[in-house]
Specification:
This protein is an alpha/beta fold and 328 residues long. Helices cover 34% and strands 26% of the residues. The radius of gyration is 20 Å and the shape is globular.
Length: 328
């Protein structure tokens, strides 16, 4: 039997979820308050059911619900639909205020909750995480990330979306850098403290930051972390490197490859591309979510992980404003 999935929010990320859940055999419905967008999506993806209001959607019994609205609405929408499903996939960031996250946590205690940090589902991430678990590079001492993209080319409507305001989850910290904060914690351990410098450098018609530099310590202070990201450079690239006592591991997310360079080697050894497009990651995430919903496996990025990432977001914004280091 096809599994009924409801996607709440029909923007670009909501559309990706519709497409990817359909690709793995689910029957997908959509809830969006924009009538024109709802009609467009229904025609494009042949959606049997649509809802203009989340209260209408609560009449259904959903195998899983995806919350893909602006981040400041996540908690309210998730709580409103929680009685109609056993499992929630909430897009990143979990929300924009810690008090909303704590309230949501109290509202969905009996539910399966997965948070949409999709880089965790990249096959290259899984590969590197396994090598770390096997202690291949010895003691991990440092994680570095350098990333960027040309946001106006990739998301030309950014000026009219949530991105324009911090309050709705906008700016580079909450939009793109939060993925990097999460993947660093997933591979290198929880961040203990951070110092962040962020600035608006280039993007037109917005005042939020488009450039983020963060340093910090993770895993009880044992791992030094450095992250640099901007949203205006020409190439779309994300380089992650983990340096240990016996060697180094790396992920080039834009090439979908993982690499290893051990002491004594003369060059990197790279895998073949482990994915072909970004939708591959979202299909992996969708399949994992379905498995978590019936208890076959725990969520790869659960509610506690989402709250931890939110705390880093808030610390990064505060550090950038105050010019002081912040304990997570």
């Amino acid at each position: 039997m096809p599994l009924d999935i409801l996607v709440v929010g029909g923007g670009s990320i909501g559309e990706r979820h519709v497409r990817c859940f359909q690709a793995i055999g689910c029957t997908v419905a959509l809830c969006d308050s924009n009538a024109d967008r709802l009609r467009e999506m229904a025609e494009k993806y042949h959606l049997a059911r649509t809802f203009s209001d989340i209260q209408q959607a609560t009449s259904g019994n959903w195998y899983g619900v995806v919350i893909a609205t602006p981040a400041n609405l996540h908690a309210g929408h998730a709580a409103a639909i929680a009685n109609s499903t056993a499992a929630l996939l909430i897009e990143k960031p979990l929300c924009t205020r810690l008090e909303d996250a704590e309230w949501l946590q109290s509202m969905v205690k009996e539910k399966i909750v997965q948070v949409g940090y999709v880089l965790r589902f990249h096959p290259a991430t899984r590969h590197v995480r396994q090598l770390l678990a096997e202690n291949v590079i010895g003691a991990l001492h440092q994680v570095t990330v350098t990333a960027g993209q040309n946001f106006p080319s990739l998301r030309p409507a950014y000026r009219e979306t949530y991105y324009k305001f911090h309050e709705t989850g906008g700016g580079a910290v909450q939009d793109a850098a939060t993925h990097l904060f999460d993947i660093v914690q997933h591979l290198g351990g929880q961040l203990d403290w951070i110092f962040c410098d962020h600035a608006h450098q280039e993007l037109t018609d917005v005042a939020v930051e488009d450039t983020v530099h963060l340093i910090g310590r993770a895993d009880g202070g044992r791992v030094l972390v450095s992250i640099a990201l901007n949203q205006f450079m020409a190439p779309n690239e994300t380089h992650l490197q983990l340096n240990g006592s016996r060697g180094s591991l790396a992920i080039r997310f834009h090439e979908h490859r993982a690499g290893m360079f051990m002491l004594g080697d003369s060059e990197w050894t790279w895998t073949e591309p482990l994915a072909s497009e970004r939708d591959d990651l979202f299909r992996e995430q969708a399949q994992s979510f379905l498995s978590a919903a019936i208890g076959q496996e725990p969520p790869l990025c659960g509610l506690d992980d989402g709250i931890r990432a939110l705390k880093v977001n808030l610390a990064a914004l505060r550090s950038g404003e105050t010019r002081v280091a912040v304990t997570i």
